[in-house]
Amino acid sequence: MKNGIHPSYREVCFQDLSNGFKFVTRSCATTKESIKLEDGRELPLIKLETTSETHPFYTGTQKSVDNLGGRVEKFRNKFARVGLKK
């Protein structure tokens, strides 16, 4: 590998802004913020809007479109004959 052409690959702390959940992983992402962890390490901080801790798909709170007041069924009934050949 050539020296000086690769980004800095280091440990970074990601924080979920909606509930404060933090996790540490390695990344090349750049940031100007840093955070001091409970174990004394100071790491770059990247703030996220959603992580697996708060995303509806991972938490099991995702709603099915078919169960939202019958809107899908109304649509199917309304446009059932559109496009049918006579």
Précis, in short:
By secondary structure, the chain is α+β, with helices and mostly antiparallel strands. It has two helices and four strands; from the N terminus they run ββββαα.
Overview of the structural elements:
The structure is a single chain. With 86 residues, the chain is of the alpha+beta class. It has one domain (10-78). 14% of the residues lie in helices and 27% in strands. The protein has helices at 56-59, 71-78, and strands at residues 10-16, 22-27, 34-36, 42-48. A 4-stranded mixed β-sheet has the order 2-1-4-3, with no helix packed on it. The longest helix has 8 residues, at 71-78. The termini are far apart.
Produce the secondary structure layout:
Blueprint (H helix, E strand, L loop, with lengths): L9 E7 L5 E6 L6 E3 L5 E7 L7 H4 L11 H8 L8
Structural class given helices, strands, pairing? alpha+beta
Largest sheet, in brief, is: 4 strands, mixed
- State the end-to-end distance: 68 Å
Shape from CA axes? elongated
Roughly how many Å is the radius of gyration? 23 Å
